[in-house]
Amino acid sequence: MNKTWMIVATACVFSASAYADDAKSVDLDKRGDRIEQRLDNRGDRREQHLDNKGDRIENRLDNRGDRIEHRLDNKADRADANGHEKRADHLRNKGDRIDQRLDNKGDRIDHRLHARGDRVDNRLDNKGERINNRLDRRADRR
């Protein structure tokens, strides 16, 4: 009888410790998922911030180009009215070139900010993946 109770008690201790190890594994896995989710959210916020910044810069440059083009078109209309057709064509072409250059500049800035946001997002994703894998390995060893 004593041996039976001893075997049953030993089996209970082993099952309780196995259950505790499983609980620790689940806890570490959940912790890794929470950390990875938090880093994903941070990357998304940073990427959204950079997208908004690029949009503001691009809008500002578009407005500037439109104002310059409008001003040069008005000068071209006055030159046309005075009979200076070559001068009017030159002013219209100059306005178009300036507007196009500012549009291209805005596109380059927007592309550069987008690439920067992608790099930040990838770096944070990799960091979260490393942390999650490390915690999974710790959970597997337990």
Which regions are unreliable across 5 or more consecutive residues at pLDDT < 50? none
Q: Describe the global form.
A: rod-shaped
SSE order: HH
Mean of all residue-level pLDDT scores = 81
What structural class is derived from the secondary structure elements?
Answer: mainly alpha
Features:
single chain; 142 residues; mainly alpha; 96% helix
Can you walk me through this structure?
The protein has 142 residues and is an all-alpha fold. Helix content is 96%, strand content 0%. It has two helices and no strands. The protein has helices spanning 2-81, 85-141. α1 (2-81) packs antiparallel against α2 (85-141). The two termini are 34 Å apart.
Write the layout of secondary structure elements.
Blueprint: H1 2-81, H2 85-141
Helix pairs in contact: 1-2
Short description:
The chain is mainly α and 142 residues long. The chain is built from 2 helices and no strands.
